[in-house]
Amino acid sequence: MTISESIQTLFAVPMVCEACVKSVSESIYNLGGITNVDANLKDQQVLVEGTAAPSAIVSAIQATGRDAILRGSGASDSAAVCILESFETEAATQPVPEDGRRREVRGLARMVQGSSSALVIDLTIHGVEPGLYRATIREYGDLEAGVSSTGLVWGSKENPDAPRGFISTVTVDESGKGAVYVDKPLQVWELIGHAMVLTRQGEEKVLENDANTVVGVIARSAGMWDNDKMVCSCTGKTLWEERKDEVKKGML
Known about the structure:
Structural class: alpha+beta
Mean pLDDT: 85
Subcellular location: Cytoplasm
Organism: Ceratocystis fimbriata CBS 114723
GO molecular function, one term: copper ion binding
Number of domains: 2
Function: Destroys radicals which are normally produced within the cells and which are toxic to biological systems.
Order of helices and strands: EHEEHEEEEEEEHEEEH
Strand content: 25-35%
InterPro entries: HMA_dom, HMA_dom_sf, SOD-like_Cu/Zn_dom_sf, SOD_Cu/Zn_/chaperone
């Protein structure tokens, strides 16, 4: 889907020379819809402006043999993120891993207020069966019972045929991956604390936890220049050490 709202996104990218800067910049420009790329070798950062999805920009950078970490999008208080996890019942019977997590990360949704009337949503999913899925915002952000405690689609009581919480359908291919990039007439502050769900199940009954239904709670994320942390104060790990941990958990 074509997005008309241009957004600014800042990435941390390991670069060692001007050839790195050129390679990264050219790969991003090849996406189309990019109006500006400012790669700063000294600060190891790349600022991108345009209508391409942040997830597509990460993939373009990774295609050059480098990794990328999204550091911020849009203005302060205008961005949000949702980590989508599987709450399948079978997971509770498996041994608890070292980090104490039983849930499997299956996707990520990034949201940026592109304008006063449009919220840009970049959603990616992996590790689920092929098929057509529905992405929705739910009434509640209660994950005590996984997806089953998130309630109905947000706004379905007022308008069951076109609830405000319906985001999009998402086609997952044979590799188990899918993505959608859309803008919706929403405000980011309205969604904070609500759950987002991606599922193949119908809405005629309470949703059940299964391997192909993922859910997470929407939380605020950093805007441009809001996040200058290079070392985590909790773990003492560097930015890139944390990135390795995230990849192991499924946050691609």
